[in-house]
Write a structure and sequence with these properties.
The structure is a single chain. By secondary structure, this protein is mainly alpha-helical. The protein has one domain. 78% of the residues lie in helices and 0% in strands. Helix 1 packs antiparallel against helix 3, helix 1 runs parallel beside helix 4 and helix 4 packs antiparallel against helix 5.
Length: 116
């Protein structure tokens, strides 16, 4: 049970890290240079995203010690797609076309069929 909790936590941390990096990305509109580096390194969203990714690695590695990679990785990918797609719509106002939603549904169905 702890292995699935670790995988779930890794999934949430990964999605949160991606959302955090997206929220902090406007600081990079001028590009990446020595002049912009202080703003990048002090941006709480970017720093938070890096920390969340690091925590994700810890929990995902723990989950991999007890779950098959062939099961854990697709779970991370599908879960991440669903969480990040939903978050991007609600937080950033990004739209999802019917074609994109259909493709996402087919990916989810494909992974379900692989492990059914």
């Amino acid at each position: 049970m702890m292995n699935w909790l670790a995988l779930g936590l890794a999934l949430i941390l990964n999605a949160a890290a991606n959302v955090s990096l997206k929220a902090g990305s406007p600081v990079l509109t001028e590009g990446l240079s020595f002049a912009t580096m202080p703003r990048v390194l002090t941006n709480p969203y970017l720093v938070g995203g890096i920390i969340l990714f690091a925590l994700n690695v810890v929990f995902y590695s723990y989950a991999l010690t007890r779950l098959p990679l062939s099961l854990a990785y697709p779970t991370m990918i599908i879960g991440g797609l669903l969480i990040i797609t939903t978050a991007s719509a609600f937080i950033f106002g990004e739209s999802l076309s019917y074609l994109q939603a259909s493709g996402l549904s087919l990916i989810v169905l494909g992974v379900i069929l692989l492990y059914a």
